[in-house]
Amino acid sequence: MISFISKEEREIIKRFQIRSAFNVHLSLNIDSINVKNGLALNKLISKGIIVRVTGGAYYLDEQKLMEYNLKSVKWGMSVLLLVLIFIMLFYFYK
Asked: What are the residue ranges spanned by the domains of the chain?
């Protein structure tokens, strides 16, 4: 299943990046960065991009974010390649 990061999810990621919350020691309480505990945050947690630690603090796992972005790019390139193949087949067998 292809899933992309929504605008709201990107905003949450940006808030963690601005505050440099990239590991357990730099984790933040979501209230301190004005992030609601809603669907967008839960989706990022389920993807492993945002990690919850003890005490209710969270941090951004940059490695998971990069892996997720790379996977999305690979899917996009695959779809683009298939479209180009169909266009070429249509053009040559017209």
From this structure: 7-92
4: left (phi over 0), alpha (psi -120 to 50) or beta: beta
DSSP calls for 2-17: -----HHHHHHHHHHH
**pTM for this structure?**
0.74
CATH 3.30.310 fits 7-92, yes or no: no
Span 63-84, pLDDT tens digits = 999 988 888 777 778 888 899 9
Neighbour-count burial of 56, counting CB atoms closer than 10 A to its CB (0-12 exposed, 13-18 middle, 19+ buried): exposed
Which amino acid is located at 57 in the chain? A
